[in-house]
Amino acid sequence: MKRLITALTFALLSVQIWAKETVTISTSQWSPYITSVSPQYGSMSTIINEAFANVGIKVEYVFLPWARAYEGAKSGEVDATSYWYKDEKHEQDFLYSAPLTTDEMVFFRLKNGTGNSWRQLSDFDQMRIGLTRGYTYTKAMWDYAETHKNNVYIVGSDRQNFKMLMLGRVDVIPVQKDVGLHLINSLFSKQQGKDIEMLSPPLTIRTGHLLFPKASKHSEHLIRQFNKGLAELKRSGRLKTLQQELVVEE
Q1: What gap in Å lies between CA 225 and CA 200, rounded to an integer?
Q2: Closest CA to 49 of 94, 80, 84
């Protein structure tokens, strides 16, 4: 009997310890997906929170500029960083979670009557391009920025880039589609918003992930738990509902 009680006590303690496990995630402001002013820290963070909650893990967020959020996770100062597009530059230092979404990165500009399409980055050679520091974009986009420094402006946020676009300080900016539409609706009047157009095709279509640092011995455990919780969200239909809530109407 004593052995049984001891075994049950150990099992209960194990469950309690597991249930109190906490994961710390570095991130930055990316409204409406990620924002420190929302109770659930934004719609993307809600997906992450609920996936971890399914396996008894609590999430805490550390808000930093994007580049610092990335480097802090890379060195193992936090358990993971949210949320990043799949790109070969991450693969040396990070493990990918299962995909949370599939997103389009598109170019926005003020309407000028010359059509709303582009074919290659050289189409923008006579324009000023606004980029956000620390973003993934594509290798081709960052290579272009490196060779066209005189007409590429790098700032701290998409919000800054949209304000620069409206003020005529840049001519075109690449932004995740739904985030861009959200910013247009929140930053500008309805009439001003009508003056901004999206170009086609997208710069890139990519899946978004949590990144877990290879430098941490806990990453493989955490990524298994997160993927398990995310799979449960998918099976229940809850993930589809949350993904639909990410979409911002034009």
Answers
A1: 38
A2: 80
DSSP string over 25-58: EEE--BTTTB-TTSTTSSHHHHHHHHHHHTTT-E
Q: Which residues pair with 152 in a beta bridge?
A: 129
- Please state at what angle helix 238-246 crosses helix 219-236, rounded to 10 degrees: 90
User: Right CATH number for 2-101+207-246 from 3.40.190.10, 3.90.550.10, 3.40.50.2000, 3.40.640.10?
Assistant: 3.40.190.10
Q: Is the pTM of this model over 0.85?
A: no
Helical packing angle, 43-53 and 219-236, nearest 10°: 100
Pair 155, 179: CB distance under 8 Å: no
Handedness of CA 88, 74, 223, 227 (dihedral sign): negative
Summarize pLDDT for 161-214 with one digit per residue, the tens.
Answer: 999 999 999 999 999 998 999 999 999 999 999 999 999 999 999 999 999 999
d(CA 200, CA 227): 33
The CATH classification number of 103-205 equals: 3.40.190.10
As beta bridge partners, residue 197 has: 109
